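no rush on this but wanted to send it before i forget. what follows is a protein written twice so to speak, once as letters and once as structure tokens for the fold. mainly i need to know what kind of three dimensional shape the backbone takes. thanks a lot i owe you, the record is right below.
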Amino acid sequence: MKEPGINLIKKFHIDKKKIDFMGYEMKENEILTFHHLLIPSCQKGPYEEWNGVILCGSSSHPYLHIIEGTDYDMFLSITSEMLDELIKGYLDRENLLRIRDILNCFEKEYLDECLCNYKIKEDYLIRPSIDKILTRKRVMKKQVD
């Protein structure tokens, strides 16, 4: 992975939290991938920190592109939540829960009715339980008088 992706992994503690920008848990030997968020790579989007997020290469990243090809509005909603995390500078539990809700809506609308034209792997549907989704603890620095 190039430097911007490595910087995102460090900045968002992806390797320590074992969770990506969509709330998917990293598996053993998971390959993390850089997803172009604002300007897609097909439009020559730059490989820069401001333009990307880190996703699991075996689950969330391919699943997000399936959602993009099936329901573009849901794709944009997920993108908006990830952009919010990128702006905040941390993986936020509320954003991750909203992404989970969007994924559940997608699955209810398209998988239950078999309306999706893509192969949905079982791995795409496995997400951590809600109580395992991270909580952000802020540590206040002592003020020096």
About this structure: The chain has a mean pLDDT of 87. The chain has one domain: 3-132.
